[in-house]
Design a protein that fits this description.
By secondary structure, the chain is α/β, with parallel strands linked by helices. 38% of the residues lie in helices and 14% in strands. It is built from 14 helices and twelve strands. The strands form two sheets. Strands 1-7-6-5-4-2-3 form a seven-stranded mixed sheet, sandwiched between helices. Helix 3 packs parallel to helix 4 and helix 12 packs across helix 14. It is globular. The model has no long low-confidence stretch (mean pLDDT 96). It binds pyridoxal-5'-phosphate. The site of pyridoxal-5'-phosphate has 15 residues, from helix 3 and helix 4.
C-alpha cells in the first residue's frame, strides 16, 4: 500500500467483535485477569493498553520499523532512549538541535555520568573524528531546526554501523510522510508527535520507532519501567490526527514553497532559509533522502528589534513555540524554543537573534502572503531598514 492509504486503511480495533470504524478509547488503568495464575493480554495500562497498541502499530508501519512506542511527550521518548546509555559511555548530539534536547543532555543525562559531545554532523569528517568505541548513540536532526541544515543520513548510518553506535534521527520536522530515516539505515527514529504527527496542536506526545527486535525489547522494557508511555485518550487523539498527515503536509508544504519564494523576493528580508530552494547548500542531499522541503522556513530580519516587530505584527501567524500544526505559527527561536542553547554554540551556526521561524499551515496562500506583507510594512514603519 502507498503511504496515504496506510494512514487510513488499518484495523482500528483488532479483535473487537463490534467492528468499530475508529479506535475505542480503553480508558482503564487495569484489566481483570482470568485468575491469579492465568493472565489476559493486558493487565495494567503503563505496561500495555489496546488504544496505545493500535497507535504503536501505526507508528511502526509509517516509519518502516518493526516496533513503535508512544510516549507522553517527545522529551519522554528522548529520556527513554537516553536511558539505554550507561555511565562512562557517550552520546554525540548534532550541533543545531532542539533547545529541550540540549538542556536534557547537558543538565540531566550528563549528571548521570554519560559523556555528551556536540559535533557538527553536516561534516562527516568531524563525526568520523569524534566517534569512538565509547559512543553508544548519535542523535541528530536533519533538517535541523531552526537553521535547516542537512546531514547525510546514509553516510552517518554507515559510520555508526561500523562503530557499533546507534543512529537516532529526530524526525519531528519532516514526519514520516516526507522522510523515513530507518529506510536510509538509521536505527531509531524519534518524533515529538506534539508537532506534525498530531498536526492540530491539541496534545503532547512522543514516539520512538526502531527496526531491530532486540532494541525494541529494550525500549518496551524501559517504557514500562520508567512509566513514560502515552495515555489512552491522547493515543486516540494522535491516531485521529495522523489520518490526515499526508493531506496536511502536502498543503503546508505547498504553502511553504510559495511563501519562501515570496519572502526571498522581499527587500525587508535579509535572508530566507528553506531546504526546498535549489540553491540551499544541502538541497541535493536533502532531496536524496526526503520528499520535500517541509513546512518550516527561517528568515533573517537584520536586527533583533525588526525580528521581534515582525513576529508581533503578523495576525494569522500566531506567536507560539511549537511548529508543524495546520495553523500557521511564528517564533523567535533565539528567545523561545532554543533559549537553552549557549551563546557560543549558537554563534558557530550563525543562529542569530534576528532569526524568525515560520511554520506554515493550511490556510489560503493569498491570506498568508497578505499577512506577511502587512507585517513587513509595519516593521518598515517602526524600524526602517
Ligand atoms: C518539540 C520537540 C521535541 C520535544 O518534544 P515535546 O513533545 O515538546 O516533548 C524534540 N525534538 C524536536 C525537534 C522538537 O521540535
Amino acid at each position: 500500500m502507498d503511504f496515504q492509504t496506510k494512514l487510513t486503511q488499518f484495523d482500528p480495533a483488532p479483535g473487537d467483535p463490534l467492528r468499530p470504524t475508529s479506535t475505542p478509547i480503553y480508558q482503564a488503568a487495569t484489566f481483570e485477569q482470568e485468575s491469579p495464575t492465568e493472565f489476559g493480554r493486558y493487565d495494567y495500562s503503563r505496561s500495555g493498553n489496546p488504544t496505545r497498541d493500535v497507535l504503536q502499530s501505526q507508528l511502526a508501519l509509517l516509519d518502516g520499523g518493526v516496533s513503535g512506542f508512544a510516549f507522553s511527550s517527545g522529551m519522554a521518548a528522548m529520556a527513554t532512549l537516553a536511558s539505554l546509555v550507561r555511565p562512562g559511555e557517550e552520546i554525540i548530539v548534532g550541533f543545531d538541535i532542539y533547545g529541550g534536547t540540549y538542556r536534557f543532555m547537558e543538565r540531566v543525562v550528563k549528571e548521570h555520568g554519560v559523556l555528551i559531545r556536540h559535533v557538527d554532523t553536516t561534516r562527516i569528517d568531524e563525526v568520523e573524528m569524534a566517534i569512538s568505541p565509547l559512543t553508544r548513540l548519535l542523535l541528530i536532526e536533519s533538517p535541523t531546526n531552526p537553521m535547516l541544515e542537512i546531514s547525510d543520513l546514509r553516510a552517518l548510518s554507515k559510520l555508526c554501523r561500523q562503530n557499533g553506535t546507534w543512529l537516532a534521527v529526530d524526525n519531528t520536522l519532516m514526519s514520516p510522510y516526507l522522510q523515513r530515516p530507518l529506510e536510509l539505515g538509521a536505527d531509531v527514529v524519534l518524533h515529538s508527535a506534539t508537532k506534525a504527527l498530531c498536526g492540530h496542536a491539541d496534545l503532547m506526545a512522543g514516539a520512538l520507532i526502531c527496526k531491530d527486535t532486540e532494541l525494541a525489547d529494550q525500549l518496551a522494557f524501559r517504557s514500562n519501567a520508567l512509566g513514560t508511555a502515552l495515555g489512552p485518550f491522547e493515543s486516540f487523539l494522535l491516531l485521529r490526527g495522523m489520518k490526515t498527515l499526508a493531506v496536511r503536509m502536502e498543503a503546508q508544504q505547498r504553502n511553504a514553497e510559495e511563501l519562501a519564494r515570496w519572502l526571498r523576493s522581499s527587500d525587508e528580508i535579509v535572508q530566507t532559509i528553506y531546504p526546498g530552494f535549489s540553491d540551499h547548500p544541502g538541497h541535493a542531499l536533502h532531496f536524496s533522502q526526503a520528499d520535500g522541503g517541509g513546512p518550516v522556513i527561517s528568515v533573517r530580519l537584520g536586527t533583533p528589534e525588526r525580528a521581534a516587530a515582525f513576529v508581533q505584527a503578523t495576525r494569522l501567524f500566531h506567536t507560539t513555540v511549537s511548529f508543524g500544526s495546520l495553523c500557521s505559527t511564528i517564533s523567535l527561536p533565539y528567545n523561545m524554543s532554543h533559549a537553552s542553547i549557549p551563546e557560543e554554540q549558537r554563534q558557530t551556526k550563525a543562529f542569530t537573534p534576528d532569526l524568525v521561524r515560520l511554520s506554515v499551515g493550511i490556510e489560503s496562500t493569498n491570506d498568508l502572503i497578505r499577512d506577511l506583507s502587512d507585517a513587513l510594512n509595519a516593521v518598515c514603519r517602526l524600524q526602517p531598514c
